[in-house]
Amino acid sequence: MDEALRRKILSILDEHKIMSLATLRPDGWPQATTVGYASEGLTLYFLCGPESQKAANLARDDRVSLTIDHDSPQVMEITGLSMAARAEAVSDPAEARRIMGLIMSRYPPQPGLDLPMPDPSQVRLFRLTPKVISVLDYTKGFAHTDLVTV
């Protein structure tokens, strides 16, 4: 992958806090949800409830698709990422605590919201390892995409 494209991907990951994540339901239909995330390089992390549909879907099939983007007032300024990735549950307690801190550090203090940070044993944490990344950048032309295999 060319260095300018890698910087573009990392910049988009850093500029955003939420992604749309699609997992596969037991009936084969995709299920898309919005989740917060953190990233280290190209690796993404998110958490969900241990009894959630996402966690059940990922226990059965680790393939996900995701998008990271934002609304743009000008159509020719649209940028974003689409990825195909593999999800892996994070089971090491020390790594889970570190990732929880990484995710929570992306958000400013929440005045008036006195909820304690959940213990890693109360949630399911996942590591997403991208396999294919599509970088959408309309500033290079209508619907311009660069496809990267990781």
From TrEMBL:
Keywords: Oxidoreductase. Residues 7-133 form the Pyridoxamine 5'-phosphate oxidase N-terminal domain. InterPro entries: F420H2_bilvrd_red/Heme_oxyg, Pyridox_Oxase_N, Split_barrel_FMN-bd. Transmembrane segments: none annotated. The keyword Hydrolase does not apply. Pfam families: PNPOx_N. SUPFAM superfamilies: FMN-binding split barrel. This is Nitroimidazol reductase NimA-like FMN-containing flavoprotein (Pyridoxamine 5'-phosphate oxidase superfamily). It comes from Caulobacter ginsengisoli.
